[in-house]
Amino acid sequence: MNAWLRTIFALLLSSVLLVPAWAELPAVDQPAPGFSLPDQDGAMHALADYRGKWLVLYFYPKNDTPGCTTEACNFRDGYGQLKALGAQVLGVSVDDTASHLAFAKKYKLPFTLLADADGAVAERYGALTNLALVKFAKRQTFLIDPQGVIREKWLKVDPDTHAAEVMAALKQRSAR
């Protein structure tokens, strides 16, 4: 096989292997996909556990990386206000429970981090990137109402301002 054909073959093979997982995104005003995942302490959490409360379900790529740390710390700093608005916060990544525990302790995160080790929940929410050998959650957030219905979703998240955006959306909904 000549060099030109090898190059074309390599490009085709790599494009097949590096295709991200594309799940259909859950729609606003539709029920949120259910889940049951372990937290940083190994306790299980299910969507049904949060009925009767607003839920901020935020997906993020990796513990202890710059953008993810900024986003988590901003949710930490606004956590009291979010709770006062009747909301719980859950962070989700494909990191394991031990990594979540270290991350939560290091930054004194007052909210729960869920370990979606196989990426199945992130995939159900359309928030999984699967690069063959590497999986990670996309930085996306879903605001779920007390009845389990998605009311807002953010697919393009700026870690510096996102917690404030979520808080503003909750305040606006509380004022209705």
From TrEMBL:
It comes from Niveibacterium microcysteis. It catalyses: a hydroperoxide + [thioredoxin]-dithiol = an alcohol + [thioredoxin]-disulfide + H2O. Residues 26-175 form the Thioredoxin domain. Belongs to the peroxiredoxin family. BCP/PrxQ subfamily. The keyword Transferase does not apply. Thiol-specific peroxidase that catalyzes the reduction of hydrogen peroxide and organic hydroperoxides to water and alcohols, respectively. Plays a role in cell protection against oxidative stress by detoxifying peroxides and as sensor of hydrogen peroxide-mediated signaling events. This is thioredoxin-dependent peroxiredoxin. Its EC number is 1.11.1.24. Residues 1-23 form the signal peptide.
